[in-house]
Amino acid sequence: MRTPLFASIAGYVFAGYVFAGLVLAGLVLAGSVFAAPAALAGNPPAEHRYLPYTGSVPACTDDAVLGRIQSRFAQKESEYWNSSLTIAGYDRFHELGYRTEGRSFIPRRYCTARVLMSDQRYRQVSYQIGEGLGIIGWGFGVDFCVSGLDRNLAYAPACRVVQH
Fold first, then answer.
1. In which order are the strands placed within the sheet that holds 108-117?
2. How far is CA 11 from each of CA 3, 14, 24, 146, rounded to the nearest angstrom?
3. Which of 11, 62, 138, 160 is the most buried (most CB within 10 A)?
């Protein structure tokens, strides 16, 4: 008994898809085997990329950085925790590190300072300043954590996430 023409054409088409899939999988596997050593060998600094970073990150004592921390802290306390607590002032600044992950990552500066709160208590604030991490990648970005006031444990334990 002869196989209908449609069934034999469908079989050839299916076999063609299977063969193409196997060839594609083989190419991907070969590419990953040969590309891995090349990727490890050349890990260029962030300043040498197609869209490079400059390595210019504001200092720990920069007024724009401190102002951003102050305003965002007040906003967070007011909106999320129904608290009137604010940052009244800063002192005892200390830089913990600059580009501690290596030169091929986004340039970041890690800092800590003592803050006087509106309740007249001193606390520690830890913060990181990253190049190009502002809104839509424009300017610097700041992540911060005030010790004892990380109520949702976003930077737990004890603000260590931003103290890299």
1. 87-98, 108-117, 122-130, 141-146
2. 11, 5, 20, 67
3. 62
Evaluate whether 156 touches 162 at the Cβ level (below 8 Å). Answer: no
Q: How far apart are the first and last CA of the chain?
A: 75
Per residue in 27-49, pLDDT tens?
Answer: 555 554 444 444 444 677 777 77
pLDDT at 136: 79
Distance CA(5)–CA(76), nearest Å, equals 71
Phi, psi of 4 (to 5 degrees): -60, 150
Evaluate whether 142 touches 109 at the Cβ level (below 8 Å): no
pLDDT value of position 117: 97
Q: Which of 144, 139, 150 is nearest to 60 (CA)?
A: 144
pTM of the predicted model as reported, rounded to 2 decimal places: 0.70
**Mean pLDDT over all residues of the chain?**
81
Cβ atoms within 10 Å of 53's Cβ, excluding its own: 18
